[in-house]
Design brief:
With 259 residues, the protein is α+β, with helices and mostly antiparallel strands. It contains ten helices and seven strands. It is 38% helix and 13% strand.
Length: 259
């Protein structure tokens, strides 16, 4: 796949305000692209969503491993560190005040697909603007408005006819939602929660689509085909009509003369 061409065409038709992103999940930290900058360069540890924002707004090729991340829910959810207690993540949700009981926390985690990824499945992550891809991505992320996401959905449905699901917690761990599609092999829409919006500066109007990179070709073709039929972005508000005139406008009209 020519990811530079894909990125350019999506940008032309969808007009996102930040770079399309490629994400590579690595089982060996030595496989991080040599171009990938890790937080250690700046002498800090980060929340992974910060690196997502930096990649998509700064246009940087970035990488991270467990030692680069101080967001413990991310470390647990992505399996970057092993949880000795299987209930640890649910107990964290309870401690944060997200649920009334541990039973509800566990139920929500299971129902929302927030079960942690088995430890060791991911050892390192590379995040980069898709048009600069130093390595073939496993996942593609596209940030935008709900209207832009709807346009992407129509492009995907053109060839698959299967609705794209969105599961939202409201409190965070969008990093897990972003990479989970690699394991489900299905696209998803994600509404970033308070964690990403606080720590990574994701705007209130933004959400994102995440999908395995293998869908790129069909998505692009679906967007082009639906574009040809008139489904486009920006949304075309209907303008061919005569608006009504209110009483003050009619009074003014009586005081106007043709030239």
């Amino acid at each position: 796949m020519d990811y530079k061409f894909f990125s350019e065409e999506i940008t032309r038709m969808i007009r996102p305000q930040s770079y399309l992103l490629g994400v590579k999940l690595l089982k060996d930290i030595n496989m991080l692209p040599k171009e990938a900058v890790r937080p250690a360069k700046y002498g800090i540890k980060i929340s992974l969503c910060q690196w997502t924002t930096m990649a998509r707004r700064w246009g940087r090729i970035l990488g991270a491993v467990a030692d680069d991340i101080n967001c413990t829910p991310c470390l647990a959810a992505l399996g970057l560190k092993r949880m000795e207690n299987s209930k640890a993540l649910s107990e964290y949700f309870l401690d944060m005040g997200y649920f009334d009981s541990i039973e509800l926390a566990k139920k929500a985690a299971k129902g929302l697909g927030l079960e942690p990824i088995p430890s060791g499945e991911i050892r390192g992550i590379a995040i980069f603007p898709l048009e600069m891809a130093p390595i073939d991505p496993d996942i593609v992320l596209i940030y935008g408005t709900p209207a832009q996401m709807a346009r992407l959905a129509s492009g995907h449905l053109y060839h698959y006819g299967k609705l794209i699901e969105s599961r939202t917690t409201g409190f965070g761990i969008s990093c897990l939602s972003a990479v989970k599609t690699h394991f489900t092999d299905e696209p998803a829409f994600v509404h970033p929660g308070r964690g990403e919006r606080i720590l990574a500066g994701t705007d209130e109007s933004e959400m994102f689509m995440t999908f395995p990179a293998r869908y790129c070709e069909s998505l692009l073709d679906g967007l082009k085909k639906t574009h040809e039929k008139g489904t486009r972005y920006p949304v075309q508000s209907y303008m061919i009509y005569q608006p009504p005139t209110i009483k003050p406008m009619k009074s003014l009209e009586e005081k106007l003369a043709n030239l």
